[in-house]
Amino acid sequence: MNLSSNWSWGDWSVNARANYFGEWRNEQDYPGQVFGAKTTVDLDVSYTIAEKYTVTIGAQNLFSTYPDKIAQSSAINVFPISGGLADGQVYARSGGPFGMNGGFGYVSLKANSETQPTFSRR
């Protein structure tokens, strides 16, 4: 489920989004484990210069939400020293529905090369 909100005033705009991911399972790789529901937040702020250039600063998964770690069970051996499996996995192989890399920040510059049509009357 996603909840988004966009605000604009003058040359500024702000976009905020909350992404809810429900609980999930992977019975083949992690039998019996239920990975919990999580919410991530994305945010970006943009400023337009001279009606042609837009600079955006933003973040995906702003608060670095991580999926649940792999849990010890009769079918899964988590090593106490590393907190992971024999191959080093701490999080599910796929990271679940939103990955396992935490937050991501970015800066972008967009140039609008379109020229507006000019109309004249004679």
Please, could you describe this protein's structure?
This protein is mostly beta strands. The strands form two sheets. A five-stranded antiparallel beta sheet has the order 1-2-5-6-7, with no helix packed on it. A two-stranded antiparallel ribbon has the order 3-4. The chain is elongated, with a radius of gyration of 22 Å.
Mean pLDDT: 92
Q: Find the count of extended strands (DSSP E, 2+ residues).
A: 7
Structural class: mainly beta
Q: Major sheet: order of its strands?
A: 1-2-5-6-7
Helix content: under 10%
Task: Tell me the distance between the termini.
Answer: 54 Å
Which features does this protein show?
122 residues; 41% strand; mainly beta; two-stranded antiparallel sheet; 7 strands
Summarize the SSE layout with pairings.
Layout: E1 2-9, E2 12-21, E3 24-25, E4 34-35, E5 38-49, E6 53-60, E7 104-111
Antiparallel strand pairs: 1-2, 2-5, 3-4, 5-6, 6-7
Compact description:
About 0% of the residues lie in helices and about 40% in strands.
